[in-house]
Amino acid sequence: MAELVTILIDGLTYASWLFIVALGLTLVFGVLKILNIAHGSFYALGAYGAATMVAWFASMQFAPWLSLVAMLLAAVAIAAIVAPLTERGLLRFFYGRDEVLLVLTTNALFLIMEDLTKLIWGANPYFVSEPYALFGNVDIGVQSYVGYDFMLVGLAVTVGLAVWWGLNRTRQGKIVLAVIHSPEVAASMGVNVSRVYMVAFSIGIFLAALGGAFTAPMISVQPGVSVGVIILSFAVVIIGGLGSIEGAAIGALIVGMARSVAVHTAPVAELFAIYLVMAVVLMFRPEGLFQRIQARKI
Q1: How far is the C-alpha of 111 from the C-alpha of 37, rounded, in Å?
Q2: Which of 51, 78, 158, 176 has the CA that lies 20 to 30 A from 203?
Q3: What is the spatial distance between Cα 94 and Cα 51, in angstroms, rounded to a whole number?
Q4: 141 touches 68 (CB < 8 A)
């Protein structure tokens, strides 16, 4: 029984940060129709930015709980700086062109950003230990778990509900949904489609950076961390259905639980278990579990 509880908690913790990152990926696809290969790089920038901000806050001898604010500010800063440069300076020139060209463009951006992070932060790993100890330990049965993991689950739920509410219960969200369904009709009704693209892309980058920032205390932040994240994020959105918030949540839970079961029962099959689940889902639901919009073929 104790092992089952451990598997469930580990799977839920893993799914929580993965959902935040995948939510940004599926939002960008839903609005801009872009399969953003560089999404993992924004996650890495969030992790590196959080490591830098937390270290600076610690050097200034601020209260330890402010390290959480530092990580949030890092994600906001990454989105505020990188989003305009990427969307206005690069992607907007490729709207309406062949989808393969967009994939190649974001892949090139991914390679550039990988080298850029090495130039800025070097090749040595960074460790963000301060926030991880803020929530103490939680005892469940005979096992003790880190409280930070449960905070991360709460953050994922909060982010998911906030994005859902923003899209479905606000005027701005209705405008975004209109652009998703038909940019041409939305533009004819006076909607500034270019601005909607910019805002949606900024939120997508923020979510990726937020996932990276709040995952940084749990991992070693080092070059290459973005590669595994983008693969897992694509697995999540493919399982759940491109462009679906509900699909991203269910997909993240499936991937998280599959990985947790594999890690605790057959560690060598960790990645195999994820790809196996994805293959089984696509066999019966090629469009994903919660596909809402027709994915463009590449």
Answers
A1: 10
A2: 51
A3: 33
A4: no
Helix (H) or strand (E) run with residue 43 in it: helix 39-59
pLDDT tens across 188-217, in order?
Answer: 989 999 999 999 999 999 999 999 999 999
**Measured CA distances, 275 to 18, 35, 43, 48, 253 (Å):** 15, 19, 21, 28, 14
The strand pairing partners of 145, in sequence order, are 138
- Separation of alpha carbons 18 and 38, rounded Å: 16
Residue 252: which of 269, 224, 229 has the closest Cα? 229
Output the CA torsion sign for 7, 261, 209, 118. positive
What topology does CATH give the domain 2-284?
A: ABC transporter involved in vitamin B12 uptake, BtuC (1.10.3470)
Each as own residue / partner, the long-range contacts of residues 135-143 (CB below 8 Å, 24 or more positions apart, any chain) are 140/5, 140/9, 141/1, 141/2, 141/5, 142/2, 143/2, 143/5, 143/6
Domain ranges of the chain: 2-284
- The rounded distance, in Å, linking the Cα atoms of 270 and 21 is 20
Helix (H) or strand (E) segment spanning residue 130: none
pTM: 0.93
Per-residue pLDDT, 292: 56
